[in-house]
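Follow-up to my post from last week.
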Amino acid sequence: MVQIGKATIGEEKIREYEPYMYKGVIDERLKRVQEAYDRWQKTRTFEFPTWLYGQPLGKLFKVEVEDCPTFGETSWLELDSARTAFFSIDMQGWAWLLYNRQGYDTKLIDAPIQPIKNCLDAVRKTDMKVVHFREGHRPDLADCPFRKSYINKVVGEGITFGSQDPGGCGRIATRGQPNHDTISELYPIPGEYIVDKSGKGAFHHSDILQLLLNMFPPPTHLILTGITTDVCVHTIMREANDFGYWCLLLKDCTGSTDWENHLSAIKQVKMRGGVFGWVSDSQRFLEGVEANLT
Amino acid sequence: MVQIGKATIGEEKIREYEPYMYKGVIDERLKRVQEAYDRWQKTRTFEFPTWLYGQPLGKLFKVEVEDCPTFGETSWLELDSARTAFFSIDMQGWAWLLYNRQGYDTKLIDAPIQPIKNCLDAVRKTDMKVVHFREGHRPDLADCPFRKSYINKVVGEGITFGSQDPGGCGRIATRGQPNHDTISELYPIPGEYIVDKSGKGAFHHSDILQLLLNMFPPPTHLILTGITTDVCVHTIMREANDFGYWCLLLKDCTGSTDWENHLSAIKQVKMRGGVFGWVSDSQRFLEGVEANLT
Amino acid sequence: MVQIGKATIGEEKIREYEPYMYKGVIDERLKRVQEAYDRWQKTRTFEFPTWLYGQPLGKLFKVEVEDCPTFGETSWLELDSARTAFFSIDMQGWAWLLYNRQGYDTKLIDAPIQPIKNCLDAVRKTDMKVVHFREGHRPDLADCPFRKSYINKVVGEGITFGSQDPGGCGRIATRGQPNHDTISELYPIPGEYIVDKSGKGAFHHSDILQLLLNMFPPPTHLILTGITTDVCVHTIMREANDFGYWCLLLKDCTGSTDWENHLSAIKQVKMRGGVFGWVSDSQRFLEGVEANLT
Amino acid sequence: MVQIGKATIGEEKIREYEPYMYKGVIDERLKRVQEAYDRWQKTRTFEFPTWLYGQPLGKLFKVEVEDCPTFGETSWLELDSARTAFFSIDMQGWAWLLYNRQGYDTKLIDAPIQPIKNCLDAVRKTDMKVVHFREGHRPDLADCPFRKSYINKVVGEGITFGSQDPGGCGRIATRGQPNHDTISELYPIPGEYIVDKSGKGAFHHSDILQLLLNMFPPPTHLILTGITTDVCVHTIMREANDFGYWCLLLKDCTGSTDWENHLSAIKQVKMRGGVFGWVSDSQRFLEGVEANLT
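User reply:
Got it. Predicted complex:
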């Protein structure tokens, strides 16, 4: 132990993980979890935790979630409308163009258009926030990793991100080009957010976290829809879940380039009680919205 | 405009920044700011915005802040105790060891010890959170940029991060070594948080954001104290402010290697109405705590 | 257009995405991609790009990758040993404990132990870096989102992260507890890196990016192994890929709680030419290492 | 110790920071630092570390840096032109408009215009990259924290970010508005990068890190210029330095709202051997460029 000026350095009681430190925090945490668990056993509902986030700033509503906590079982998720954001992910023209060229069946990504539209129609009558994501690159491709350009060039037989679309829809997945924009069927309306991202995920290279933390009010729960199920939707869901957001995937509002991957992506979410969030569908979501928010 | 499957691509109404998009959001935002401004003109208080964060989960209290909105003027900041975190930054043994060797006057960093202690004594009687930061490196220096090791080697005449302290206090600024730990006078108690960081800032390379977002409840306002004013305290304040946290620096609870830099760092915070947050001191903070939380 | 002091504000030539700006950058980018593509067509090899990263600092070696660029085809990936990091992800005791309790077949996660061991044996004779990841929480659970504790409590019939393991292996997935540590078969050796992370991914809440950017030298290519294929391995792969790292998954060095999800996770990587990276296996990786690095 | 399947859990040799783990890494690190230090003592030059980053991809050049390692001393920094990025930070119209209104002397920010211009003229003849930053907000202010809008409203007597400029220059600091753009004197040219950021710093809420990591080639050294010295220039410098970038501030290419804060911000960089990087000026930078790159 050394004394320099007024500072005592090298206290003997060097931090120990256990049992000394943090004691108060873990006790409160386990207690709160126990209380929530006790209530869940009675209600089968993952209630909006007002002790954690405060009283609702909108209206509470409940959505049935499937295969939770285990396959074949049903639970309910409760949300505060004012603290819920609805994500419509990458419903952009270039997906149809590119997957079509690469030989994938675009009927799989046609499928979610109408269910998302139905949800948007309902959500727009509430105080939920809507965020539209768009994957794509700066016109100079400066935010496109070389490997990404390269591998797409190889698989696309010469056509990659930033290449001119032979069908006349402009440079592929490039900001400012028609094919980069959200498809007309699901176009944003005033008051909604648009997030341009260069990756499959969004939290590293876009301002989505800045937006979420600074919304009026900041959301706690997220509804995930869009394409593709196993790529961008899943990546954003994983990132958001890691930050602590409560995520709900609407399965019929998603689609992929491959039916097996789509199904597996949905199943992956449900493992271990909901490792990345919960799964429901547009019908049950709409029932929840209509029963409580209208 | 192209139709592929059910998707319409290349809508003519390509996103325009103005005047079409986002209209609802900006109107609400400017209205909320106007309302807050109108109230501030009456109360000179930056009130806790319940419409944004919900009703208080602890108790509200007010602290007088100086030179705000302009030099010579006084305002008040209102906080919710349960959503306030008190940061004690880098009050670690190695600062005294290293600055002493480098010829700086460690009386400048002695000065904040007692004021921070006084604040901690008061804060520990409330539901405010306490976070202790520690700058330092993995024992293998794996998280220490080469330039950082190098420049410190040059200025330290051969002694750098990870070197054995000639005075017997272990490897300098290395985790697990006595000199890396918080000084005894300000040692954490159970229920408080310790954040080890490899940089001057904390939000990139530590789990501080994860902690803040997942506290019970997540803080909205931060109290900043520690050393050094112009380096680590300022960097963390800048990062937190950019994320949207409401930051309050207690000036007598900070110190630097240089008196001019200390004073300028405080002044820098106050520019342009409080560009990085607000400035007060331990006495006014304690008055606020005692008047409202005890 | 306004002139204030020496500044001219409001130039008419407001930034346009196209066709004015960034022209040089996109031309160089498309040219580099074209050159790499031309060479790939001759060699079927994704060569280490020395024009991008500089001359090799170790030795070049090649690994055969499967189903690339499309299913049924084979390509080669070339790496610089000194700029390659080998990731062993979450091979921790608590996985066996917890999945066993939850009724999953732990043979699926037994399977990768020996293949990873074989790779580690070979890698340790080279200048490749090794990083061991561990998912788990601070002893106070401060970095565990409430939802994560909660959902695991529900699915675990009362046993969650931080709970005492009824079998006597300490608090589950809690740092400092035996079950949190890497299993003995794959234990780190001196000179390797250990990254503790609170999420499924690692780039947000740990210092992995700091480590990668500051290694001697910084890696450009990553080898991914560990558990579970569809959860932590995939999340880390997605994050790294988004940052621009060249990722290679060794499929027999991974395992999951579910065989279908494991297979689909591997397939998902291969879509669209390798949307998250490439897939190979331990045998082909070892062949590449042995042929070039020994 | 427990055996489940093929996994052995709870090895007795739980990770210890010292002396067991990481041994190889620290030895190499200290050795590399020692070697660099030995060479520095002979050359007074912080050489470009080819063992770390590879052989130069452009040309090496040297710039004299002042007050390094201590005040009154001089050293040299060596850079690889192809791995150097020149940052021109926030040289936007709204700074002049807003500071003028707030009563600050805009001569202080006039001063760096010509020195930056001189540097840009020289840099544009080399293979260095140029990045122009712009602080400002989405037209809907969605990325503007409420506190930021609020405090600027208070200090600006009702005029804040997003407000209409009474002088007719559009909404203040709002993307797409003339006052948000770079001033004409320092306008970007094709092949340069523009980064829009919502904060004082840039690494959290913009794609700057994505750009840097994916440039052809990725820079290791950064030249910092722009306004204001103590706010945005310093914040970006702190962030970049924490990530391990080698930063060089050109002091006459910066300016602030306050002369004391400007001087102190420069002095702060020089403390402790260069805690955030090095300081030089346009003349010495141009000498280095002209002597080696032309």
